[in-house]
Amino acid sequence: MGRFGAKRGETARGRTVNGARQVREAHDGARVQARESGAAQLARWVEMIRRALGRAAGFARNLGALAVGHAVGRLCSLVLMAVVGRELGAEALGELALGQALSQYVRMGSEFGTTQIGARLVARRRASAQDVLDVVLRKRARLTTVAVVIGLVYAWLGPVPAGSRRVLAVFAVSGGVFGFSLEWLMWGMERYGAIASSQIAVAVSYLAGASGAIVLAARSPLLWIAVAYGAAVVFGVALLWGIWRSGAKASAPMDVQALRETAMEAGWGPVAILGSAVLLNQLFQTVDVLLLGALSSAAELGRYSAGRRILFTIFGIYYMVTQAAFPIIARAGRTPERYRALARAVGAVAAVGGIVAAAMALYARGILVLIYGPRLEGAAVALRVLALSCPLEFAAAMLGTVLVADGRNGLLLGALGAGTVADAAGILLWAPRHGAEGAAWAKLVSYVILLAAMRLLAVEPRRLRLAAERRGRGVSVEKHEEGRA
Fold it and tell me: How many whole angstroms separate alpha carbon 159 and alpha carbon 167?
């Protein structure tokens, strides 16, 4: 019995030792696993940060390319107007401004709604860009024909100086050339370097050609300036086509369903609605000046325009951000995560706009004196009121970009209509009595209404998601019941 008991004791002690060893090994394994999981998590965080920085760097490069293209274009235009004014006088400067305005209107008609639609389609179906190009280009060719005919009719029969009709006709045809530009295609593919190259090529070649016409053309220098503009536009459009052809890869043909969806998205109905929204946006941006000029004095219009010019310069810089963000938003799926990210982005840009507004309101008088001199110091009140609309416009522009990227063109049209009516009503009510300050308050109220309308329209995806979730739960219950049966 003693020997037998001793063996049982040794066995028990062995089991205890083995158990302790297993516990230690388990603890060691857990610590190793914890270290490995921590290292893996750290590696994931590092990779996420690296990707975020890469995306931010790419976005900054896109903004830089857009900024360079716009800056060179504005600078060349300013230099050309100065040269024409000095060498040919005020009358020639007025005719040139009229011709360039007509060219821009013809361009708007040639692109009527197709620029944003085409860029959205390319962003979503980049592999089938050639099919999208064929669909959109056929639409733009018809729009261009109509726009150029209307421009020529205005040039030959409209209320313009008789001696400038040939000049205006050349500018009208030149504006139609933009209908065949591939800038929208490069926009959807996020090839902003190509867009900037084309803009710079047009601006520099136009300035060079116009300067040569002023120096060399003894007769009709304005006509040759118009010809130089047309040649510059053709050069810029041809450059984009060359970039596309040289870098184009074999396009994956769309299936029948994708072709049908593309044709529907680029149909005349969506094009007409979005084109009308673009024109209405232009009216929203200018109706205040038009009505204030009719209802008040030139001095009040000048005080209001002084602050408005500063504000819209800031808006122009910000619009490059929304332009660069548009293909990214259009390419992303309509998911809850995407809408949460967009909500954070809208809040962030509104906060930035609030900072800009605070700085402008605080230093309004000094900014006006620095830019315009002491004569327009009295526009400080109007500028302070206009500055309050800065965060509203930043948020509204981002929400409008989301609506266009989602193809909800009619909703954008309705929101812009509400904002434009509010702006016009406010100016009719307050401008006759309060002048520039009244117009500034009307613009601020119109931005509030515009943003409120967009915000109400932007909640539609949430309702759609809730409906989809309810349908999904219904399907799950049905499948569960079938499984039980």
Answer: 14
